[in-house]
């Protein structure tokens, strides 16, 4: 089979992505790697779960394809270890590939957190289509993040009609509920104010940093690009520009540099910088989701627990109720949110959390 001829609706944005293939059968693993590379993917290999965890210390794949039954550490234990110890991999799809084709085996694979379950012998057309679909889903979520950035940029600019420093400081306080970072710079490029999300984003040592010299990054190249974008915004009328800030262990930050049209007064904010972290998963507010969908207290607690990645059996234990009670509230959530699947429900709730998150108590 010539897999390079496969018509994949999700080819755009998936080529060159890194796949971690975990399989103890050398011949089968070699065949899978050959098919993946022919389709344009890069591949890391591991013979068991323990070796896969070591690979994950030095690389971050875009998708993990794993056998279940392997010596030393099997696929189930590998997935549990990743979900419990590597929150930075929460958005990485995990696909099981196994000869275990009983309905119970498939259900067990899904219940431990797998995104898909493929059967052996391998149908490479189905495998590539599944991988493309999952990577396409991740790409769509990232595009939604960029779209959300653009919407928040427009909302912020509409609010930025006032020209005094105190007025903009008040706007920054009003934006404390946003999940995007918002930073106001004066006519010299120095930081005047920022919302709480931006304060958190500039405290680390990987990415964006606030120093005595102003706003900079941990990458010399990114710092030069950021300074140039700020200078361009200060120089004259423009539509702004976008800068990506590389990070060592995480996906790049996305910065939108927005001129505010105030250049005469040095003390007035002249540039706004909106910062989005594609990996940030803001915690859902039970109060917010309750008001959005008219949920009861129990339903709102369940919604928050689901977005935290907890399984239904874990939720039942934590809440001290029976699985039947949890299922009852879950059905109510489906009805009130007009969804029918748990994955769709969580995606809907997380979109609301991306727009706004509860402000921290000082």
Description:
Keywords: DNA-binding, Phosphoprotein, Transcription, Transcription regulation, Two-component regulatory system. The radius of gyration is 23 Å and the shape is globular. It contains 13 helices and 12 strands. Helix 9 (286-293) packs across helix 10 (297-307), helix 10 packs across helix 12 and helix 11 packs across helix 12. The protein folds into 3 domains: 3-139, Response regulator (Rossmann fold, 3-Layer(aba) Sandwich); 162-276, PAS domain (Beta-Lactamase, 2-Layer Sandwich), CATH 3.30.450.20; 286-355, Winged helix-like DNA-binding domain superfamily/Winged helix DNA-binding domain (Arc Repressor Mutant, subunit A). It is α/β, with parallel strands linked by helices and 362 residues long.
Topology:
Blueprint: E1 18-22, H1 26-38, E2 42-46, H2 49-55, E3 63-66, H3 75-85, E4 94-98, H4 103-111, E5 116-119, H5 124-159, H6 165-174, E6 181-185, E7 191-194, H7 196-201, E8 208-211, E9 214-217, H8 220-235, E10 241-245, E11 253-259, E12 271-276, H9 286-293, H10 297-307, H11 312-319, H12 323-337, H13 342-355
Parallel strand pairs: 1-2, 1-3, 3-4, 4-5
Antiparallel strand pairs: 6-7, 6-12, 8-9, 10-11, 11-12
Helix pairs in contact: 2-3, 9-10, 10-12, 11-12
